Amino acid sequence: MSPRPIPLSEILVATGARIHGPIAHDTQFRWIERDSRAVQPGDLFIAVAGERFDAHAFVAGAAANGATAALVKTTWAQDNAGSAPLPLLIVDDPVNALQQIASYRRDSLNLTVVGITGSIGKTSTKEVVAAVLGRKQPTYRSPGNMNSEIGLPLSLLEIEPTDAYAVLEMGGAYAFGELALLATIAKPDIGVVTNVHPVHLERMGTIENIALTKMELIEALPSAGLAVLNGDDPRVLAMADAAGCDILTYGLQPTNDIWASDVQTNGVRGTTLRLQMPGEVVHLKLPIAGAHSPYLALPAIAIGHWLGMHISEIMPGFNDPGIQVRLLVVDGPNGSTMIDDTYNASAPSVLSALGLLEEMSAGRRIAVLGDMRELGEETEEQHRLVGRRATEVVDELITFGPLATLIAEEAGERATESGGRIHAIHSFGLEERDDLVAFLRETSGPGDIVLLKGSRGLEMERIVEALKPERA
Question: For a Cys staple, 44 with which of 29, 67, 360, 412, CB 3.0–4.6 Å?
Answer without folding.
Answer: 29
